[in-house]
Amino acid sequence: MAILLALAAPELEVLGITCVAGNVPLALTQRNARIICELAGRPDMPVFAGAARPMERALVTAEHVHGKTGLNGPELWQPVMPLRREHAVDFIINTLRENRAGAVTLAVLGPLTNIALALKKAPDIAAHIAEIVLMGGGCFEGGNITPAAEFNIYVDPDAARLVFDSGIPLVVMPLDLTHKTLTTRERVARFAGIGNKVGRFTAEMLGFFERFDMEKYGSLGAPLHDPNVIAYLLKPEIYAGREVNIEIETSSELTRGMTVVDWWRVSGRQANATFMREVDDTAFYELLFARLGQYRDGTAR
What we know:
globular, Inosine-uridine Nucleoside N-ribohydrolase, Chain A, alpha/beta, single chain, 12 helices, two-stranded parallel ribbon
């Protein structure tokens, strides 16, 4: 849904999509990204495969949430559009170097492995990044893969630590915020009723995805995590948070991947991120309905 929202936004110039192992292995994430591009009628969009595993650890995936395909719910197909040959890390480096400093924002929807590897390989690119807007972490909500950790950070905490220590401007969309953008029966029905293939695909995807979180949290719907990254780029005025220091726990087995958020500013450490905590969920969903409603079946697969 985040990719669909981005590709429907004329305000954004999407330069490419880089894939990483996360909810499912890399072979599936790069396939799913191309499926979504074809669904959006954008087979021209460059899609790159990146890291197949975290920087220093074994891969942890989340098929128990998203299904074996990573996109369970709708009927999927084998994408026709090609995967670009260039490695995602090299694409990130080359794209940032080719554009003027401050022109490119990285919108991160999964583990931070590709970004961290790019920064290690080419430290000079840090000065070229306008900001990184990422979905990850949590504070008052705790974790969703362990009691302490959110999934994206937990999968590769070493990469997250490198990025959070980089000095690059960061905007964090944590569980504290995404858990306030819940689907409901009415909202899923409205996606289905948009009247195009994108809307029907979205409703079918949510129908599968919801069941896990509804049972887990006892809620009437499931949080939409990743679309908040793109929605923030389009409508930052519907979000509120504060600048804080965030440190990433990498050594403790008990709290591996925890985002230690100094919300009350008691540590004395310098702020390194904007931690978003509030959202106008009605405005968020209205944005999704409006933009996904712009797709026409003639431009989608």
